[in-house]
Design a protein that fits this description.
- The chain has 125 residues and is an all-beta fold.
- The protein has a single domain (28-124), classed as Jelly Rolls (Sandwich).
- The chain is 0% helix and 52% strand.
- The chain has strands at 26-27, 38-47, 52-59, 62-67, 71-79, 81-86, 91-95, 99-102, 107-112, 116-124.
- The protein starts with 25 loop residues before the first strand and ends with a strand.
Amino acid sequence: MSAETSTMPQVQILSSVGTALLADLVLKPTALNGTTPSDATDNAITLNAGTVDIGFWACSPGTFKTARNGVNEVILVLEGSGTLVADTGERVDHAVGDMVLIPNGWSGVWEIHEQFKKQYITLSV
């Protein structure tokens, strides 16, 4: 079978952390405690009409309210560190190399301690 007639799906690089097209950081409207966290996203791909999103996200230090409604999110911390503080008070610290699940229905505060970058996958439920 020649390459021209092959129907095998092709492997492709969707995005690279070094070349992610992150826009300028923009102040998060849910910032708390007088902090000024700013963030930006590079959504590399959306599959199946919005059920899976994959991309990169960056954020400057600060604290903001956040929630996962209708999605499970898996992140891989590429740079920096932070703490997710659930509305119940549970604290989860995470840093470079950690893979973290933020489950559907979770809500709380995200404390970004230093310049932060993650790769994310969200899965709609």
